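re: ur question from yesterday

yeah so i grabbed the chain u mentioned. its 847 aa long if i counted rite. heres the sequnce exactly as i have it in my notes:
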Amino acid sequence: MSELLKLQIGGQSRLDGWKTLNPEVSPSTDYIGTLDNLSRFADASCDKVYARHVLQQIEPQQQVTALHGISRILAPGGQLLISVPDLDALCKLYLNPQLNKSARLQVMRMLFGGQQDNHDINRTGLSFEWLADCLAAAGFGFVQRVDDFGWMDDYSLYAPYGTPISLNLIATRLTNQHFIPAPQQAAQTLIEEQLSQHTLSLSNLAAISNQPLQALSQTAISHSVSATLSAADAAAVQEKTLQALAFQNNDQVADACRMFHEVLAIHPQNFPSLYSLAVIASQKEDHNEALSWIQKAIATGQNYAPAFFVEAVVLQALGRFDESLASYENAITADPAYESAMINRSNLYYEMKQHIKALESFADALKVNPKCDKALAGQGIILTEMNRYEDAIPIFERLLEANPDFDYGLGLLLHAEQHCCDWRRFETSLSTIEQGILSGKRVCKTLPFMSLSNSPENLLTCVKIFADHLFPVKNKALWQGEKYGHDKIRLAYVSPDFREHPVGHLMAGVIEHHDKSKFETIAISLGIDDKGSLRQRFEQAFDQFIDVRGKKSWEIAELIRTLEVDILVDLAGYTADSRTDVFAYRPAPIQVNYLGYPGSLGVDYMDYILADKVVIPKEHQAFYAEKVAYLPDAYLPTDSTLKISERTPTREEMGLPATGVVFCSFNHDYKINPPMFDVWMRLLDQVPGSVLWLMKLNEPAQRNLRREAEQRGIEPDRLVFATRIPLVEDHLARYRLADMFLDTTPYNAHTTASDALRVGLPVVTYLGNTFSGRVAASLLHAIGLPELITHSLEEYEALALKLARDQNLLAELKAKLLANQQTYPLFKTDLFCQNIEQVFSKMMEDY
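ran it thru and got these structure tokens back, copy pasting raw so excuse formatting
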């Protein structure tokens, strides 16, 4: 073709003045192509391409391919004309976090507007602010709003949709693309004469709801130059504002602030300057200053949704949650489709433990965008915390359909399925997760991966990915190397579990046994006050008990620094309601990872991990970011005051058969996996009349496990499920009805194994390679029963079968276990406390 063509793709109407053509025959008939026909056109053969309602109808992945095809056939300086719904699709595509750099650049090049169909231009429900945000994110310098469309055919067409926006008014300050001349000239005339100016400097819009304080580095702003300003002042304000924004965009914060203040000296109500100073202060975590600036900006009368959003974020950072919620509501009222505000509001409800309201708020976001990955993830996580795992599974499936690479998304789905013992995708998901972690991807959080992996190297890789993402070290350490010189070692424990909780049961006796002549003990309590007896024990045992659950992490860190704590112990790690970020501020000279999280935290600001030589043998030290501080016996503490009810319930009361071997495993459902269950079912098959006694944690898990048993040829009713008992003393007493405890791998029983041994129930375990997979072996060494430790699933199965068939041998082991409690260290709380104090004292000497 010797001359440049004008090609229309899709649609039925024709554009006036366009040649008719048939590329296969001759330019004699109208040609409306499809995306599949683009290969018929030579490179750079088209002057203009009109894509009419095409891009909106295909998937994002195909949109990128289509754009490459269109770009190929466009001549240099050629124009892409698209309908607004297609522009909408392009904007959303640009903001897709999965888009690679090359594809993002391709989309940006296509975003230069140009409408020929007057009955289609901007007839959408998009708000100017949303559209302008998208265009700014695509790299355009600024966008002008046009209020006088006299040069258009029929202004009334657009009335139902508010003031129309001309996409031809995109300034060329940051792009070299060409525009249709006539509308561009008309736009420039209108700009000069009259209009409200909207200056944009937004980047990283997609990250705002995840990390609002970090992502608000550049934010869309709008302003109206006051009519009271002289022409010279108005020009100065505009020039200085653009200079300030350029400084801000280039991270020249000091210059930006100086210029914004110069603007405010001329025009004290200048919205962009007030807004931008708020954003800058928020980035510096100077929340009070940020609040002052943003409230001044809002007081100018601009009903600008992002301003209310920033106010809400700052108030949330200050812990003023009710006011923050009100500001999020104002943002959503100003822009009913403000997805980021809905997400943040939902997350705040979640932080306030108002799970139902959080679910409803996420649902509002999904009405705006049914594929909103953050809303789907939020709903799924809340449902799992409400133990509604089966309801969470389809939500996580939708999440992965919307965004297959959502951070930790596959792990969230698999972990919900694990809780339901739904193993349909277990092997496939496990393989994908392992490959993803080895590739450095955020595919699974650390605690779920502990129940999947027997590789300490892979676990360290996983935890480093997680920690680097969510818990990086803070810019400035609160402790700067000072030597306190206290008469006693100030020892602080940080935990959400100073209450009725496994960690609470393990630690209560230790705190009570601390030598008060050498240690001053402080509790930093992050969790709820359940008003129970354990809580009261902790409050009485600590020298200071400080409830900080209502404080922000940086406030807690500052408090700890003020207390001049010598040794700060994290009893939670990455478990529920923990505050690892408190430690990231380095509020104490010695920071220790212990007990609550059975593994490395993968961060440099944790100095030690407390362990024993079974859970972390010396040859495994390389798989831990912390220095290993060894306790001489088991790392797991116990409470010697723990009582067991004298009365043992009957088998009938517990739903057990009158006779037959009882294999017991009161482990969490997510620790049970297909290979482990295969062994258990083979044991039931080989021991007639035996039953497997499990803990009932949720109905779907019980249903699925019985189905899995039946598929393996075992009668479903040979699985007996124990229900929860209010008193721990009565719970422990029922262990006496079992013949042995079957441990799980790669994630062992921890507190549960300790409980079984306390009652005198032998624990058969398989020694794994990870911390969490070696805990039961540690306990067995500390109670003098290493013969119950096996080194393969085959050996595990053989030992359990041998004990089930030899009741005399089993009785001897039970008698030995009870006798060893008198002489071995496992259940001697006073000895354990002496040992841990010696380790703490050595840490003080070394630092």
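noticed a couple things. The longest strand covers residues 74-82. also The first helix runs from residue 60 to 73.
anyway ttyl
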